[in-house]
Amino acid sequence: MHTLFLGTCRDLHASTLGYWLRTGLLGVEGDWNQQLRQISFMLKQDCRRAGIRVTFKTFTMSNTGLDTQSQFPELGSAFKAAFIKSSCWWFAQKATEIANSRPDES
């Protein structure tokens, strides 16, 4: 469990957040820190509505690894395996919504 969620998924989630921020695919506005706060709120609300318990610190540039020019961002150690496991559902839902809204780019 820890290899998948604390290894692969922490990298995947941070990279996905960076891509969505750079491309504006989630439609949130403001600077990246403001957008990350909005994304955190969306994730918490959507999970709550779906009956998924999720507790985590709000995404920031620092704890997502997006504050540096690294091409390999990673969620920080504040994000535990339980959060990563629960948030996989939300990231999959958002990715599906984005793909379905852009059928010509699939």
What does this molecule look like?
It is a single chain. The protein starts with a helix and ends in a 5-residue tail after the last helix. The chain contains three helices and no strands. The model has no long low-confidence stretch (mean pLDDT 91). It is mostly helical and 106 residues long. Helices cover 58% and strands 0% of the residues.
Quick description:
The chain is an all-alpha fold and 106 residues long. Helices cover 58% and strands 0% of the residues.
Describe the SSE topology.
Elements: H1 2-23, H2 32-49, H3 81-101
Helix pairs in contact: 1-3
User: Portion of residues in helices?
Assistant: 55-70%
Poorly predicted runs are none
Domain tally: 1
Distance between the termini: 31 Å
Q: What is the approximate shape?
A: globular
Mean pLDDT: 91
Oligomer: single chain
Number of helices: 3
Written as H for each helix and E for each strand, in order along the chain, the element string is HHH
Count of distinct strands: 0
